Each structure stands twice: as structure tokens, then as C-alpha cells.
């Protein structure tokens, strides 16, 4: 039942700030409200007072404010400012006197060419932040080196949102209108997954705090919250229908909670006068989802008419637990913090369009309703927990694991082997025993179980042991999915199993030290096994490193263009025009072919290939039935697929058509305009690459480039006369293909039209056809003449032949086809063709 | 059967990506990686540069002349890396203004690469279809003056749409009953999802009518044959997988695929002759071929 009792709620209005974004620091003590004119730092212990307000003339809205989620850098706060991402460093110490002072200069990271739409701090590594912008780029920055992004992903589409995975440190999700893309930051050439999430724009995106592959989205006007398994993107894993479009949907840090805020309150007013802006849900999973709860739900589940059949058959993903009533307008943002006095209690800090900040207390009952068990939650209690109870849990899990082992077949065997190896060295305390037993039993699941036990530090995301045990089924599901996927892959080696075990362990955020304690005991696993993902398998992360990874600034293909989705440009083509010409162009035959292919050397160089081509053609007497065998050997490497193959060079230089040096030899740093043509071009290419990489306007550099090309050509002019005089790459050839067509202008002009003397007319027309060189039509007209003379006597008296006059009229009118009077044509053209076909048919009949 | 008329040195600074003659075969528009579009007048056997159109901020992929009844508009599309405005430019008949091209700002979109533009058959009015690398197909309909209505088929092709073409207006045919069926606008598109899709306008909306699966790599071009003389519908598509496939149907419902040929290299473009029985094919190995539908094949170069 969606409760509606009043919470202990602190309200603080800040109308003067006009903030549209709120960020809370990781300790939960401060919130930063960002408005048009100023930034206001608020102490959440006394939210009515502004600790410090900094007026900054921001031209644009600050879309997003986010504090670093890592305790060691908690004074860092990032905010978006038009095209830039700015990092502010606040003094948040105990000394109340200078709290809220800005420390040092703020860092500004300028790399986007359009305004930044979203930022997200990395959850595990300090100093790493990702930003997405309207220019289609996602940059990952190390704020210590803020001049260049450490990594960049290029997507053609506008980036709405980005979100780091909570479990896998390499995985980043981004939303582009209604689509999601997943990126692995080690593989920045292209997304590793595409998900079509919503018909409209995705408004919010949140990863599950515990399940690596689970993602929740809301968006559009479709009144739904969708849960995805990102490796099964075809359809949402679960679907939650709501009464109004959802603006935010985020996981709660306890149990299976989920909080949604509604993006407009217009379409459904609550009878009590309160707008149900903010709802807390309990996520229902598979088996234990109770239908009774749904029927009791008052309003958030829409009534039957709006529910499509597809919605109905999928299980309701969550049941409403609580409504936070109070805000009178859209809740723009919300954050969770722990209550200072009672660490078991959470508080929800919300900022709404009504310019009020509220702090809601979540009492244990609500947490319990969300599937949260307070008595095993607290790690102190966990430590003191009755060992009997633990054993029962352990046994439970063992049972589950046993089942799992059976169902997984040989996979289970490996699991047991690992267990033996693992249990020997770790004998000290209960915890170790526990963890070993789990680690051993089943690599994937146990990784999580282990982590929930051995986490002693304050967990940013609480892992709930009890829930974990219950969730084993859920994990089993994902495990078996993975096994199914891997069944496709080749041999499964024990090493790989161990590898995976460690992988999973490392994937859990809180357990790093323990993992490192365990890892050395495992047999060394070849790293090669790490990177053999089939598309369905998440990329296993490598060993954790707390230092930021060395990220390649550019790859050979890097270029940094947004062009891995843009097809490689065509450099040759043939297009028919309406006037019967065939327009052809091609890169010169003498061009260096960067990809090995069977290029025939056609005729001479410099475009005379075309004349040889036409001679080939004219030597072919009749095109009907003529078939010239083509060269059988296929090239080993075909032409590249996408524009990214150019690596930032211009297509002409890439092909070696436009005079330049090979683009691969870009090495020198010296920038000297007068040091020779080759270096100049190099330099320009480089600047060109960088400019567009950073999303800058490249007009200037391109102008330079053209200029330099001219220079180059002038300089080369003396030496290589032939290539500069006729620019082979700029040649267009026009062929007259009209003789290939059924229709011909000259024929149309010269054909005569005479119904009185059909055979004579056919004869004349045959001659006309002969004069134009259409031997096939000569034959047709001759046959038509014969036919006409055969039938002329009996048909003279009766109605005129239906075939001949009509087609003759068509033939006569065909003179207009040339397009000068284009509107006339369709019928006649068509009948003209009909004539040819009919005559061709009659030819077949008559000749025998 | 095919004779060389002339070869024109367009003096582009970089490789040419598309060339098209206008309706009367008088003006040749070419576009290139040097960010320009050039128009040459070919009357009287001469070759005269009448306009060099600048304004694009990236390689220009395609040009398209409108039907002359609309005054010879030239549309060009590019990959404007600036990203801000649009890869589509429209210009009014450049030659009538003594080389001064008027630029119409149309089709501003935030999608950097517009890969393909084609005008609708003139019977439908002045409509431009554009396929872009964000996977969408945009349809710009002239609504008087300088105003254009934009309709967008979002996510028509995952990753990107590489080619669009209109269904020719010649739905009429000898063996079709009168009265003629009402004219239905259709377009065919190909994209990075290896699919050829046919879209039909259905009361103000564009709906996916058919999805043709057969290629195993990105589609590079599609061409709809003006296959007059029967009600047969024929579409040619070419792809990165080096194949050209001819799709044919009698009723828009059941389609049969015929692999015309597997070429030696990637096939970049296909183009039907006006009578729809000769197909020009060009590909990455620099060869252009002419192939006659119904099995016979002739390699031009």
C-alpha cells in the first residue's frame, strides 16, 4: 500500500537562488545549489541558511552539479557551464569559520564544442570524470590533466546523459535521445552495446548498485520506467508503468528501493490535492512479486485502458511503497544521505522546481518495505551475528549453489576445484572461512557474497547480505545466461574460471583489499583469456588499479573524428542522368591504393583510361547477352567501411591522389611553415586532427590546408608535371548511354507516323534505326513491317489494329522524352516499351 | 553502345564524391572533399565553370538537382564537422544569378553527417529525403517561400542511414486497372544495420512497410528502378559485402532477392537508367560497370 503518512521533513525555501541543479557532497553535509546568478553552498544540518554564496555571471543554465563521490576528494565539485566542465574545490573542514571557501583556482575543462549536458564522476577512481555534450562527444577527463580529455568516445548523436557503472569500473552508459549506448573505456572506437530504450528522450539513467548488467531508465512521455539487462537489450527485463511521465528514476541505497519523480503533474491530480511527485517503490523480482500488492496500489499503476497487452503480460516491476507528499512542483533532483545520529537511517534530500529543499527521513519501516533487513545490514551487527544463523544462511546458499552446480554441469566442477585450492590458505577467522567457502563454490555468485561479508569499511552502497542470499536465484539466472553465451565460445578452461572468479571479485566495489589478499593464492591466469568477449559477455575488467590508467591519447585510427559511423566516402561512381547520359567519376588509376586490391591498370595514366573504356564498349557488338568475365581474384582486404579509416587525413591524401606525403609518418613536433612542403602538410594534418578532435571549428585549418596543398602542388609542379597539370581526381566523364536505353532522341525525331501505309512506315523507321545504329530496332521494325503487311488486308475494313497505331503514336511521341516537355511522357514512354516487348514477343512467334 | 561525350576537369582540390547532371543534361554539379560544390555548364560542347559553391564545412557527400519545374534547386549534403548546423544546403538555380548562389538555410540539424539526399519525383512536389548518420531519415517538404516542413523518421537504421531513394512515380502500368491507385509516397533506405527498408507515407506518418534482409554488411546505396511496362517493383541495393542484390516484388508484400553479382571490392553506388533496365554499378576497386537486369552483365571498365 502506498503509504501517505507525513514524514519528518525539513523544508527550506531558497527562492532567491533560482537553482535548477543541486549536488550533495559524499558525506551528506553540504549541498550546492546552482542557479542562474549564483552558487549557494548549504549545510544540510541547517538547510535554511546559505553557508556561502558565490555570484558568478553564468550565461547559461548550469545543467548539472555533482560532487565527487569518493571520500578522499570530497571537496571537489564539478559543474557544467555551457561548453565547459568546471571543478570547484571547497573547504569543507571542521573549522566553521572558513567553511565554504573556494580553495585555489577552479579547473575548467574545455573540450566540447556544444554545451555539456551531463557529467558523472567515476565511482571508484578519484579525479576521473566523464562529460557528455551536444556535440556528440563523451570525454573522460583526469582533472589533474585537465587540458585534454584522457579518452573520448564519439557518437554522432547528441548525448543526453552519461552514467558510470557502479560495479564495472570500465563501463559507461550514455543516452542519446531514446537510445542507450554502452562504452568500455578501454575500447573507445565504438560502443560495445546499443539499446533502444524509449520512444522519446531518456530523462534519467541509473545503474543498479549491485548488478553489473542492470540498468534503469525513464523517459519520454511514455509513462514508464524500464529495467534492462544490458547484455540482453532486445527488450526491457522489466517494465514499470506509471501514471505520469517520469523525470527521474534512481535506485535507493537500501534494499530494492527505487525512487521516481514525475515530470509533470498536469495529467493526474491527486484527489487530496497533493501532487504525487515523488514515489518510493519496491522492485519486485520474478518469483516473489506479489500480485496482491498491485491491486492495493492506489493510483500509480495506471488503469486498464492505458495498459497495452505487452505491458500486461510482463510482470510489474515494482510496487509502490511510499509517496512523499509536500513538493508542489517537479522534483528536479534528489540525493541520499545517511542520518548523522542514526547511521541506519537514510534521508532523502530533494530539490524541487518550487525552490524548496526538503529532507525526508526514511524510517526503518520504509526500508524494510523495500526489502531491506536492518539487523543484518549493519556490519557491526554482522560481525557479532550468531554463528548458527550464519551457518543456516551459508547452508541455504550452499543448497542453492549445489543446485546451480548441477544445472551448470561442468561449470560446477570447476567451481569445486577452485574451492579446494582456495580454502587451504585461508583459515584464520570465521569471515575468511565464509568467504572462502563462497569463493570456492561458484565463481560468479560467490564473488558478490564474499564482498558482502568482508566489507568492513563504510560502504557507499550497502550490500545486503540477506537479500543477496535471496537473490541467488536472480544471479543464477544471469549466470546461466552467461554460461549459455559462453557455450558458444570455445573451450572453457579452469584458468578461465579462476580468472572469472577474480574478475567478479574485483568488479565489486568495496572489496578491493580483500581481493588482493585472495588473488595471489589463485593460480596465475593468462591475461589472454580476459579479452575474448563474445558480444553478449561483458568485458571483464582487468586487475583493479587505484591510479588512473594510462589512457591512450590517440590511436592509429584515432583521429578523433566522429566518423566511425560515417561510411567511407565513395571515390568513384556512375550515375545515370535523366537525359540519358551516364556521369562517371573515379580516382585516377595511378593512385596508390592503400588497401590491397586488384586494381587493374586501365589504359594510360591520367584519365585516358576512359577512352580505352569506351573502345572496349564499342567493340562489344551487342550488349544483350554480352558478358565480360571479370577478374576473379577478390582483394584480401576490401575497402574500409567507415570514415574512421582515414585517421584524420583528407581522403585525397589518404588515397595518395592529392599530392602529399604518407599520412602515417606524422611524427615531428616542429611547427615550421617554411621548412618544406611535406612537413607543412604533416603539421597541418595534425592540427586539423586535433582541432576536430576537440570539436573546434576547423574552417581555419581547412583553409590553411587547402592553401598548403596549393603550395605543395606549386612546389611540386616542376618535378612532377603530369600529375599537377591534369588533376586526375577532379575528372568527371560523361558518356552517352542513350543507346543502351529503349528510347532514343534521334529516333524519336526521325521516326515517321503514317497509319495509311504501315509497312512503308515500318521500313522507313527501320532505316532510321539503322542510321542511328540500333540494329536491334532495325530487326524489330522489319518484323513489324512484315506483321503489318500480313495483317493489313483483313484488318483494313474493321477497326484499326489495336497494337500498331497505339505503339506508333507512342513511337512518334517518344521524340519528346528528352525531357524538354517532361510532363507529357509517362504514358507514351511506357507504351513505347510495351511495343518493343510485344514486338519482341511476336518475333519469337513469327520466326519459326 | 556507350560513347564518350566528354571528360571534364572540375579542378576540385580533392577527391570527388558525387556528380550529377541536371534534368536537361546541361549543368553538371560535382561535390568533393574540398568542401565545395562546383557547377559546370556543358552547353555547346564547352565546359564553363558557372559556380563554385562554398559554405559547407566538411566533405560534401552528395548533390541532387531538383526537377526543373521547381527552378533547378541544387541540394547538397555534407559532413559538417563543426557539428552545429546542418549538412544540408539548398541553393536556387545558380546560373540564373550569374554565379551568385543563394543559400537557403534548410534542414538544420544537429547530426553531423548527412550521407544521402534525394528529391522526390516531381509529381509529389518539392520534397527532399535525407539519410544521416544518426540513423534518421528526414523529409523536408517545401511549404511555400523559404519555409520547409521537416518530418523525421527517427532511428530508421541503427547506427546510421547511408542511402535513401524515392519510389518513382511510375506506379501506372499497362496491366494495372483503371482508375489508377492513389499515389502513395514510398522511399527505400539502406543503412549500417545491413537492412534495406521500405517506408510508406501513411496519413502524415511514415511507417516501415518492408524490411529486406540479405546483405551482410553496411548498405552503401539503394536504387529504385523506374521499371515501366509492368507493375513489377525492382530495387537494387549494394553493400560493403561486395554484392549487389536486386529485390523484386509484384505487390510490395512478397519480395524475392537476386544476388546480381559478387564484386571484387565494395560496391559504392548503383544507379538505374531512366528506363530501368540498365544498372550502373561502381565500387571501391575503381571500376564502373553497367549491368543489364535479367542476368546479363557488362563491365564497362
UniProtKB/TrEMBL annotation, chain A:
Q: Which stretches are WD repeats?
A: 109-151
Recorded GO molecular functions are: signaling adaptor activity
Disordered: region residues: 288-322, 422-444, 690-725
Q: Name one Pfam family in it.
A: WD40
Domain of life assignment:
Eukaryota
Q: Which SUPFAM superfamilies match?
A: WD40 repeat-like (SSF50978)
**Any single GO BP term:** cellular response to amino acid starvation
Ordered alphabetically, the record's keywords are: Repeat, WD repeat
What GO cellular-component annotations does this UniProt entry give? Seh1-associated complex; vacuolar membrane
Q: Does the keyword Transferase apply?
A: no
Full protein name: Uncharacterized protein
**UniProt source species:** Ladona fulva
From TrEMBL, chain B:
Q: Which UniProt keywords apply?
A: Lysosome, mRNA transport, Nuclear pore complex, Nucleus, Protein transport, Repeat, Translocation, Transport, WD repeat
Is Repeat a UniProt keyword of this protein? Answer: yes
Entry superkingdom: Eukaryota
Which segments cross the bilayer? none
Pfam families in the record: WD40
Coarse class of the primary localization is other
Q: Which GO terms describe its molecular function?
A: structural molecule activity
Q: Give compartment(s).
A: Lysosome; Nucleus, Nuclear pore complex
Q: Which residues form a coiled coil?
A: none
Q: Which family does it belong to?
A: Belongs to the WD repeat SEC13 family.
Query: Protein name, please?
Result: Protein SEC13 homolog
Provenance organism: Ladona fulva (Scarce chaser dragonfly)
Amino acid at each position: 500500500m502506498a503509504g501517505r503518512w507525513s514524514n519528518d521533513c525539513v523544508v527550506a525555501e531558497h527562492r532567491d537562488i533560482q537553482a535548477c541543479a543541486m549536488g550533495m557532497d559524499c558525506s551528506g553535509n553540504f549541498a550546492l545549489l546552482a542557479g542562474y546568478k549564483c552558487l549557494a553552498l548549504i549545510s544540510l544540518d541547517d538547510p535554511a541558511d546559505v553557508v556561502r554564496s558565490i555570484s558568478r555571471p553564468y550565461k547559461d543554465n548550469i545543467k548539472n552539479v555533482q560532487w565527487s563521490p569518493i571520500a578522499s576528494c570530497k571537496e571537489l565539485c564539478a559543474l557544467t557551464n555551457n561548453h565547459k566542465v568546471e571543478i570547484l574545490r571547497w573547504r569543507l573542514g571542521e573549522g566553521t569559520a572558513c567553511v565554504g571557501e573556494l580553495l585555489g583556482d577552479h579547473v575548467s575543462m574545455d573540450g566540447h564544442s556544444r554545451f555539456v549536458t551531463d557529467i558523472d564522476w567515476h565511482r571508484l577512481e578519484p579525479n576521473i570524470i566523464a562529460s557528455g555534450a551536444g556535440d556528440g562527444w563523451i570525454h573522460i577527463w583526469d582533472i589533474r590533466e585537465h587540458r585534454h580529455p584522457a579518452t573520448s568516445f564519439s557518437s554522432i548523436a547528441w548525448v543526453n546523459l552519461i552514467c558510470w557503472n557502479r560495479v564495472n569500473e570500465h563501463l559507461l552508459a550514455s543516452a542519446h535521445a531514446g537510445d542507450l549506448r554502452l562504452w568500455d573505456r578501454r575500447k573507445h572506437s565504438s560502443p560495445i552495446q546499443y539499446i533502444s530504450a524509449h520512444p522519446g528522450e531518456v530523462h534519467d539513467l541509473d545503474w543498479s548498485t549491485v548488478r553489473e548488467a542492470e540498468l534503469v531508465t525513464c523517459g519520454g512521455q511514455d509513462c514508464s520506467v524500464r529495467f534492462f539487462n544490458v547484455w540482453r537489450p532486445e527488450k526491457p527485463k522489466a517494465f514499470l508503468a506509471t501514471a505520469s511521465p517520469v523525470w527521474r528514476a534512481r535506485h535507493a541505497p537500501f534494499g530494492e528501493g527505487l525512487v521516481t519523480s514525475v515530470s509533470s503533474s498536469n495529467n493526474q491530480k491527486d484527489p487530496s490535492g497533493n501532487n504525487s511527485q515523488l514515489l518510493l517503490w519496491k522492485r519486485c523480482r520474478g518469483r516473489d512479486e506479489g500480485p496482491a500488492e498491485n491491486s492495493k496500489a492506489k493510483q500509480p499503476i495506471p488503469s486498464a485502458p492505458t495498459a497495452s497487452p505487452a505491458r500486461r503480460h510482463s510482470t510489474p516491476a515494482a510496487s509502490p511503497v511510499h509517496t512523499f507528499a509536500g513538493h508542489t512542483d517537479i522534483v528536479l533532483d534528489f540525493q541520499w544521505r545517511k542520518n548523522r545520529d542514526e547511521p541506519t537511517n537514510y534521508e532523502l534530500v530533494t530539490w524541487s522546481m518550487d525552490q524548496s529543499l526538503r529532507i525526508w527521513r526514511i524510517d526503518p519501516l520504509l526500508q524494510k518495505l523495500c526489502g531491506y533487513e536492518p539487523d543484518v545490514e549493519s556490519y557491526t551487527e554482522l560481525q557479532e551475528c550468531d554463528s548458527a544463523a550464519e551457518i543456516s544462511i551459508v547452508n541455504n546458499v550452499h543448497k542453492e549453489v549445489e543446485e546451480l552446480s548441477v544445472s551448470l554441469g561442468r561449470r560446477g566442477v570447476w567451481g569445486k576445484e577452485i574451492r579446494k585450492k582456495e580454502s587451504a590458505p585461508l583459515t584464520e577467522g570465521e569471515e575468511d572461512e565464509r568467504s572462502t567457502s563462497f569463493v570456492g563454490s561458484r565463481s560468479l555468485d560467490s564473488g558478490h557474497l564474499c564482498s558482502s561479508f568482508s566489507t568492513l569499511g563504510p560502504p557507499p552502497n550497502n550490500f545486503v547480505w540477506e537479500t543477496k542470499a535471496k537473490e541467488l536465484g536472480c544471479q543464477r539466472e544471469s549466470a546461466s545466461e552467461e554460461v549459455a553465451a559462453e557455450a558458444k565460445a570455445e573451450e572453457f578452461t579452469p584458468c578461465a574460471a579462476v580468472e572469472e572468479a577474480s574478475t567478479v571479485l574485483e568488479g565489486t566495489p568495496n572489496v578491493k583489499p580483500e581481493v588482493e589478499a585472495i588473488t595471489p593464492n589463485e593460480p596465475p591466469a593468462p591475461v589472454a583469456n580476459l579479452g575474448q568477449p563474445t558480444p553478449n559477455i561483458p568485458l571483464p575488467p582487468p586487475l583493479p588499479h587505484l591510479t588512473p590508467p594510462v589512457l591512450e591519447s590517440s590511436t592509429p585510427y584515432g583521429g578523433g573524428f566522429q566518423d566511425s559511423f560515417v561510411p567511407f566516402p565513395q571515390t568513384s561512381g556512375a550515375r545515370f542522368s535523366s537525359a540519358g547520359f551516364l556521369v562517371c567519376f573515379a580516382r585516377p588509376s595511378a593512385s596508390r591504393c592503400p588497401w590491397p586490391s586488384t586494381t587493374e591498370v586501365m589504359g594510360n595514366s591520367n584519365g585516358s583510361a576512359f577512352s580505352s573504356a569506351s573502345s572496349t564498349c564499342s567493340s562489344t557488338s551487342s550488349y544483350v547477352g554480352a558478358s565480360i568475365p571479370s577478374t576473379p581474384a577478390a582483394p584480401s582486404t576490401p575497402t574500409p567501411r567507415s570514415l574512421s579509416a582515414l585517421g584524420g587525413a583528407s581522403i585525397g591524401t589518404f588515397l595518395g591522389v592529392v599530392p602529399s606525403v604518407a599520412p602515417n609518418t606524422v611524427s615531428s613536433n616542429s611547427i615550421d611553415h617554411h621548412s618544406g612542403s611535406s612537413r607543412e602538410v604533416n603539421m597541418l594534418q595534425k592540427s586539423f586532427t586535433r582541432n576536430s578532435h576537440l570539436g573546434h571549428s576547423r574552417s581555419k585549418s581547412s583553409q590553411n590546408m587547402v592553401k598548403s596543398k596549393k603550395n605543395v602542388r606549386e612546389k611540386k609542379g616542376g618535378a612532377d608535371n603530369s600529375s599537377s597539370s591534369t588533376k586526375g581526381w577532379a575528372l568527371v566523364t560523361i558518356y552517352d548511354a542513350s543507346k543502351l536505353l529503349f528510347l532514343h532522341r534521334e529516333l524519336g525525331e526521325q521516326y515517321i507516323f503514317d497509319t495509311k501505309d504501315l509497312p512503308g512506315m515500318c521500313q522507313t523507321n527501320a532505316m532510321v534505326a539503322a542510321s542511328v545504329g540500333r540494329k536491334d530496332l532495325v530487326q524489330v521494325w522489319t518484323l513489324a513491317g512484315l506483321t503489318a503487311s500480313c495483317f493489313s488486308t483483313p484488318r483494313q475494313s474493321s477497326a484499326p489494329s489495336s497494337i500498331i497505331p497505339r505503339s506508333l503514336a507512342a513511337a512518334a511521341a517518344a521524340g519528346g522524352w528528352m525531357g524538354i516537355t517532361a510532363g507529357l511522357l509517362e504514358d507514351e514512354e511506357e507504351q513505347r516499351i510495351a511495343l518493343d516487348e510485344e514486338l519482341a514477343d511476336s518475333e519469337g512467334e513469327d520466326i519459326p | 553502345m556507350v560513347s564518350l561525350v566528354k571528360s571534364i576537369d572540375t579542378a576540385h582540390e580533392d577527391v570527388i564524391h558525387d556528380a550529377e547532371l541536371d534534368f536537361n543534361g546541361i549543368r553538371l554539379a560535382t561535390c568533393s572533399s574540398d568542401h565545395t560544390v562546383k557547377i559546370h555548364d556543358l552547353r555547346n560542347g564547352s565546359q564553363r565553370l558557372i559556380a563554385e559553391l562554398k559554405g559547407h564545412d566538411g566533405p560534401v557527400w552528395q548533390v541532387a538537382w531538383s526537377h526543373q519545374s521547381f527552378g533547378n534547386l541544387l541540394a547538397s549534403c555534407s559532413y559538417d564537422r563543426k557539428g552545429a548546423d546542418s549538412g544540408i544546403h539548398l541553393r536556387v538555380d545558380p546560373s540564373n544569378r550569374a554565379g551568385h548562389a543563394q543559400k537557403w538555410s534548410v534542414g538544420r540539424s544537429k547530426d553531423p553527417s548527412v550521407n544521402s539526399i534525394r528529391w522526390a519525383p516531381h509529381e509529389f512536389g518539392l520534397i527532399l529525403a535525407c539519410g544521416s548518420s544518426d540513423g534518421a531519415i528526414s523529409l523536408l517538404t517545401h511549404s511555400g517561400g523559404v519555409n520547409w516542413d521537416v518530418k523525421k523518421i527517427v532511428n530508421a537504421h541503427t547506427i546510421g542511414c547511408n542511402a535513401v531513394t524515392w519510389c518513382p512515380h511510375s506506379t501506372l502500368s499497362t496491366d494495372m486497372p483503371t482508375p489508377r491507385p492513389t499515389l502513395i509516397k514510398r522511399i527505400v533506405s539502406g543503412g549500417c544495420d545491413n537492412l534495406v527498408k521500405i517506408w510508406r507515407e501513411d496519413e502524415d506518418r511514415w511507417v516501415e512497410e518492408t524490411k529486406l534482409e540479405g546483405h551482410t554488411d553496411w548498405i552503401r546505396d539503394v536504387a529504385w528502378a523506374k521499371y515501366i511496362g509492368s507493375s513489377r517493383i525492382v530495387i537494387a541495393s549494394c553493400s560493403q559485402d561486395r554484392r549487389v542484390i536486386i529485390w523484386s516484388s509484384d505487390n510490395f508484400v512478397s519480395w524475392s532477392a537476386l544476388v546480381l553479382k559478387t564484386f571484387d571490392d565494395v560496391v559504392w553506388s548503383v544507379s538505374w537508367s531512366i528506363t530501368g533496365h540498365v544498372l550502373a554499378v561502381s565500387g571501391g576497386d575503381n571500376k564502373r560497370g553497367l549491368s543489364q537486369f535479367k542476368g546479363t552483365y557488362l563491365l564497362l571498365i
